[in-house]
User: What shape does this take?
Amino acid sequence: IDSVGNLGLPLRFRLFGFFLAFLLLIMAGVLAVLFATGIFNTRYKESYTFLESELNTISDNIYRDYSTVTVHAVELANRLSLNLERQLLENKVSPGNIQDHPEVLADILEGQLELLTSSLERTRSSGVLLILDATINPELEGAEHSRAGLFIKNMEPNIVSSTFSNFRFLRGPMSVARNHNLEVLPQWRMEFQVEHMECYAKTLDTAANKALPLSRLYYWSHEMSIANNTEAAMLCLVPLIDSKGHVFGVCGFEVSSMLFKLSYSPAYMTYHNIFCIFSPVEAGHMQVKN
Assistant: This one.
């Protein structure tokens, strides 16, 4: 007999259909049990635990390293304030009216180069800077936003674990670079343009208006560039204050975006299906730059 009943289906097809339905019923039961026991959430829970641990580790490392940079910046500000005040007094110039004597600024800055480079060598940062609240040529156009200073970059790409430094000259009088055989970066300018350096203005204003110890006057900037053609970075700035309380500049360290990536990128891991993005969130959307 090739068919059964009124449907006219071959018996072997009907039998195959019954077996298929029975198999699907068993698989549905097994899946229901697996879902009920949470076996499919195990991998997710492992990934979540791993990410949470990795995030805590990176956060702890950032807190530790940035705290260390801050301590070194405060120490540098103390030493620079004393050195600069002494140099200025030797030139019969008061830190309070430093802008009235632009002719001494280049020599004053050069006298602090050794302290800046030695501080950069022992600090986990990509650059060190000193900005005086004065300009070498107050007669130039835009001089109200131009400030004399020094900016030394450590360009060693493996700066996180390097045993030597590779300094480059980014801001300051060219005579300083020549006298000390420092290679000059293509982005070099003699002075800082502080018109859009919010961190510079905030550091000076806070120090001038609040009687706080130096250890509470440091300022970490958001990611920024000192010029359009320079690498983005975060700056830790501390005010320079003389013995009479006059604020006459700032100093500090830079943590470039490249150094940050080298320092805090997650290590190679076995979770190849995990993709991570660290980004600020505004209005429920990640702010990722191209």
